[in-house]
Amino acid sequence: MEYRRIKDQDKDVNPATEDLESLRGKAILDGPAPYDKTKWKMKSMVTLALTFLTSSQAILIVWSKRAGRYEYSVTTANFLVEALKCALSLLALGRIWRTEGVTEDNRLSTTVDEVSVYPIPAALYLVKNLLQYYIFAYVDAPGYQILKNLNIISTGVLYRIILKKKLSEIQWAAFILLCAGCTTAQLNPSSDHVLQTPFVGWIMAIIMALLSGFAGVYTEAIIKKRPSRNINVQNFWLYVFGMAFNVVAIIIQDFDAVVNKGFFHGYSLITVLMIINHALSGIAVSMVMKYADNIVKVYSTSVAMLVTAVVSVFLFNFHLSLAFFLGSTVVSVSIYLHSIGKLQR
Amino acid sequence: MEYRRIKDQDKDVNPATEDLESLRGKAILDGPAPYDKTKWKMKSMVTLALTFLTSSQAILIVWSKRAGRYEYSVTTANFLVEALKCALSLLALGRIWRTEGVTEDNRLSTTVDEVSVYPIPAALYLVKNLLQYYIFAYVDAPGYQILKNLNIISTGVLYRIILKKKLSEIQWAAFILLCAGCTTAQLNPSSDHVLQTPFVGWIMAIIMALLSGFAGVYTEAIIKKRPSRNINVQNFWLYVFGMAFNVVAIIIQDFDAVVNKGFFHGYSLITVLMIINHALSGIAVSMVMKYADNIVKVYSTSVAMLVTAVVSVFLFNFHLSLAFFLGSTVVSVSIYLHSIGKLQR
Question: Mind telling me which residue stretches traverse the membrane in this protein (chains A, B) (predicted)?
Answer without folding.
Answer: 45-64, 76-97, 170-187, 199-223, 235-252, 264-286, 298-316, 322-340
